[in-house]
Fold this sequence. Notes:
Layout: H1 4-47, H2 52-64, H3 76-105, H4 108-124, E1 129-132, H5 136-147, E2 152-156, H6 159-162, E3 169-171, H7 177-182, E4 190-193, H8 198-211, E5 216-220, H9 226-233, E6 237-239, H10 241-254, H11 256-267, E7 274-279, H12 291-294, H13 296-300, E8 303-308, E9 315-317, E10 330-335, H14 337-347
Parallel strand pairs: 1-2, 1-4, 2-3, 4-5, 5-6
Antiparallel strand pairs: 7-10, 8-9, 8-10
Subcellular location: Cell membrane
InterPro entries: K_chnl_dom, NAD(P)-bd_dom_sf, RCK_C, RCK_C_sf, RCK_N, Trk_Ktr_HKT_K-transport
Keywords: Ion channel, Ion transport, Membrane, Transmembrane, Transmembrane helix, Transport
Amino acid sequence: MATPSTSSRRRGLLLGTASGRDAIRRIAVAVTLLALVTAVGTVGYVALGFGVLDAMYQTVTTVATVGFREVRPLDDTGQVFTMVLIVLGVGTVLYNLGVLLEGVTEGHLREHLRRRRMDRDIARLRDHVIVCGYGRVGRSATRQLVDTGHAVVVVDSDASRLEGVTEPHVLGDAARDETLLEAGIEHARALICALASDAETMYATLSARALRPDLVIISRARTVDSKDKLVLAGATRAVNPQLIGGRRMASFALYADVAEFLDEVMHEDDLDFRIEQVRLGDHSPLAGRTVGEADIPGLCGAQLLAVRLPRKGAFLPTPSPGTALAPGATLIVFGSPEQVGVLRSAAGT
């Protein structure tokens, strides 16, 4: 069951969205009414004997009440028609001005145009990462992804959390298909789900897996018991931050140099070398060869640390020269971005 704060955030989201759409709808109605009054006035003056251009000119000057002279003298019928047109036209113009002023001052029109631009930016993204939930874990994940040069789309149902976010973002429920599609899940490379509760994270994980069976989904588990349930729901991996934090603290206590080295090569932006993963494509010239024949250090200069067998198979640390490299296998290497780039080209990815 949703908490009162969650329910109020959702109501605020729905009201804000409805208000923006209602403002755009009112502007469309106002412009349509103005066009209709102009058309009726033009047709009426044509029926009174005016030419088409003269009829349109007379209509516009009448509706705008600018006080120019009449194009031609009017009989009694023409005067009555003009008076009716003035009443209808002035009312329509005032309504247009009021609606436009309201849309601009309340920010609905500006927000609508900004949202349209952001939607176009998201639609052009490819291989980005979707971060669902912009709490402490979501913000930390977003910062790390952006710092390492990856495109990110943030999803959250709380508008206050998205204030000041510079990355593309979507305001909505991450468990809804339309929200995930708006975030570009069809072209994403991965999704990180860190919502307020395990239940919300599980629903969002189920929705994402249904839309993209091949997507990498990393879900945050608030309890150790929920990790297995999230994997069953479709998460590629379920992560418990408290458990990982405790293990890292123990690692720093027992193996400080090893832990610090791994921290630097995985997270330090200024370091020239990193640990990276490279997947062998089906048509890679390295596929079907052995580790010795591939000679990764001679090919690109990077060091081969391990090989993971295809389809998320077992890891083979420090593989022997006779280890076969099958298509779909993943190479875990240590090297510079340039070296890894050469290997990716040879791997066909």
